[in-house]
Design brief:
By secondary structure, the protein is mainly alpha-helical.
Length: about 120
Protein backbone atom coordinates (compact mmCIF):
# COMPACT_ATOMS: atom_id res chain seq x y z
CA UNK A 1 0.00 0.00 0.00
CA UNK A 2 2.88 2.46 0.05
CA UNK A 3 2.46 3.09 -3.71
CA UNK A 4 -1.08 4.46 -3.41
CA UNK A 5 -1.60 8.10 -4.24
CA UNK A 6 -2.72 10.56 -1.64
CA UNK A 7 -5.99 11.32 -3.40
CA UNK A 8 -7.23 7.79 -2.86
CA UNK A 9 -6.77 8.10 0.90
CA UNK A 10 -8.66 11.38 1.18
CA UNK A 11 -12.18 11.46 2.43
CA UNK A 12 -14.81 12.91 0.13
CA UNK A 13 -15.71 16.50 0.91
CA UNK A 14 -19.00 17.00 2.70
CA UNK A 15 -18.97 20.80 2.48
CA UNK A 16 -22.25 22.28 1.30
CA UNK A 17 -22.38 25.29 -1.00
CA UNK A 18 -24.66 28.18 -0.22
CA UNK A 19 -26.01 28.57 -3.78
CA UNK A 20 -28.33 26.16 -5.49
CA UNK A 21 -27.77 24.75 -8.96
CA UNK A 22 -30.58 26.76 -10.54
CA UNK A 23 -29.13 30.12 -9.53
CA UNK A 24 -25.69 29.09 -10.76
CA UNK A 25 -27.06 28.20 -14.18
CA UNK A 26 -28.90 31.49 -14.56
CA UNK A 27 -25.80 33.43 -13.51
CA UNK A 28 -23.69 31.54 -16.02
CA UNK A 29 -26.19 32.15 -18.80
CA UNK A 30 -26.16 35.88 -18.18
CA UNK A 31 -22.39 36.15 -18.00
CA UNK A 32 -21.75 34.16 -21.19
CA UNK A 33 -23.98 36.45 -23.22
CA UNK A 34 -22.06 39.60 -22.32
CA UNK A 35 -18.48 38.40 -22.01
CA UNK A 36 -17.70 37.29 -25.60
CA UNK A 37 -18.36 40.76 -27.01
CA UNK A 38 -16.50 42.53 -24.21
CA UNK A 39 -13.50 40.24 -24.41
CA UNK A 40 -13.42 40.24 -28.21
CA UNK A 41 -12.81 43.95 -28.75
CA UNK A 42 -12.67 45.51 -25.28
CA UNK A 43 -15.55 47.89 -25.91
CA UNK A 44 -14.58 49.69 -29.11
CA UNK A 45 -12.04 49.35 -31.85
CA UNK A 46 -9.90 51.99 -33.51
CA UNK A 47 -12.22 52.12 -36.50
CA UNK A 48 -15.21 52.83 -34.24
CA UNK A 49 -13.39 55.67 -32.53
CA UNK A 50 -12.12 57.05 -35.85
CA UNK A 51 -15.67 56.98 -37.26
CA UNK A 52 -16.96 58.99 -34.29
CA UNK A 53 -14.08 61.50 -34.47
CA UNK A 54 -14.40 61.85 -38.25
CA UNK A 55 -18.06 62.87 -38.02
CA UNK A 56 -17.51 65.84 -35.68
CA UNK A 57 -16.17 69.25 -36.61
CA UNK A 58 -13.50 69.19 -33.90
CA UNK A 59 -12.47 65.69 -35.02
CA UNK A 60 -12.11 66.79 -38.64
CA UNK A 61 -9.96 69.74 -37.59
CA UNK A 62 -7.82 67.46 -35.42
CA UNK A 63 -7.36 64.95 -38.25
CA UNK A 64 -6.43 67.76 -40.68
CA UNK A 65 -3.85 69.14 -38.23
CA UNK A 66 -2.36 65.68 -37.68
CA UNK A 67 -2.12 65.08 -41.44
CA UNK A 68 -0.43 68.43 -42.04
CA UNK A 69 2.05 67.77 -39.22
CA UNK A 70 2.80 64.31 -40.61
CA UNK A 71 3.34 65.76 -44.09
CA UNK A 72 5.68 68.49 -42.84
CA UNK A 73 7.57 65.94 -40.73
CA UNK A 74 7.97 63.65 -43.72
CA UNK A 75 9.22 66.60 -45.78
CA UNK A 76 11.78 67.39 -43.09
CA UNK A 77 13.01 63.81 -43.16
CA UNK A 78 13.22 63.69 -46.95
CA UNK A 79 14.88 67.10 -47.35
CA UNK A 80 17.85 66.19 -45.11
CA UNK A 81 18.14 69.76 -43.72
CA UNK A 82 18.20 71.41 -47.13
CA UNK A 83 15.89 74.43 -47.18
CA UNK A 84 15.59 74.50 -50.97
CA UNK A 85 14.57 70.85 -51.14
CA UNK A 86 12.12 71.25 -48.22
CA UNK A 87 10.27 74.21 -49.75
CA UNK A 88 10.29 72.60 -53.21
CA UNK A 89 8.66 69.46 -51.79
CA UNK A 90 6.19 71.52 -49.78
CA UNK A 91 5.27 73.64 -52.81
CA UNK A 92 4.77 70.60 -55.04
CA UNK A 93 2.57 68.95 -52.41
CA UNK A 94 0.56 72.14 -52.00
CA UNK A 95 -0.09 72.37 -55.77
CA UNK A 96 -1.04 68.67 -55.92
CA UNK A 97 -3.35 69.09 -52.92
CA UNK A 98 -5.10 72.09 -54.49
CA UNK A 99 -5.60 70.20 -57.76
CA UNK A 100 -7.01 67.11 -56.00
CA UNK A 101 -9.35 69.26 -53.90
CA UNK A 102 -10.54 71.12 -57.03
CA UNK A 103 -11.22 67.90 -58.98
CA UNK A 104 -13.11 66.34 -56.03
CA UNK A 105 -15.14 69.53 -55.63
CA UNK A 106 -16.05 69.54 -59.34
CA UNK A 107 -17.18 65.89 -59.24
CA UNK A 108 -19.32 66.52 -56.16
CA UNK A 109 -20.96 69.55 -57.76
CA UNK A 110 -21.64 67.60 -60.94
CA UNK A 111 -23.24 64.76 -58.95
CA UNK A 112 -25.36 67.27 -57.01
CA UNK A 113 -26.57 68.86 -60.24
CA UNK A 114 -27.48 65.44 -61.68
CA UNK A 115 -29.44 64.52 -58.54
CA UNK A 116 -31.38 67.79 -58.59
CA UNK A 117 -32.56 67.36 -62.19
Amino acid sequence: MPNQSRSSTRKPSTRKTSTSRKSTKSTRAKSTKTTPKASANNGSTFSDVFYIVRNTLAGRILIAILLVLALVGLNLLLSLNSFNRFFTLLGAELVIGILVFWVVYLFRERNRDQEDT
